[in-house]
Amino acid sequence: MTKLAQTKEGYIFDWNGFKQAGQLQKLLKQLGLTKTTFHGLRDTHASFLFSKDISLDYISRRLGHNSILTTQQYYLELMPEKKHQQDADALSLLNDLSL
Q1: Where is the Tyr recombinase domain (predicted)?
Q2: DSSP state for residue 32 in the 8-state scheme
Q3: What is the pLDDT of residues 58-83, one digit of tens each?
């Protein structure tokens, strides 16, 4: 991983006029990485946590959502395979309970 220069406050971006999006694009270009946005990085981070079976409650709090439902609805839409797995797990649980 490349060591990034920091501001005197310890950040990698200056707060000059809220131009962080442009600074991010410049940094990504310097590193040879695909263009994205801060929100894209946030979604990637949350999706990665979700794919590793980190609890939905934890992810929701980490993202600052007021409701776990917001997190659930948005990320289940992004990751339909997770929804299918949860549906299968729920059916399996119901089958086990009926035995």
Answers
A1: 23-75
A2: T
A3: 999 999 999 999 988 887 777 767 66
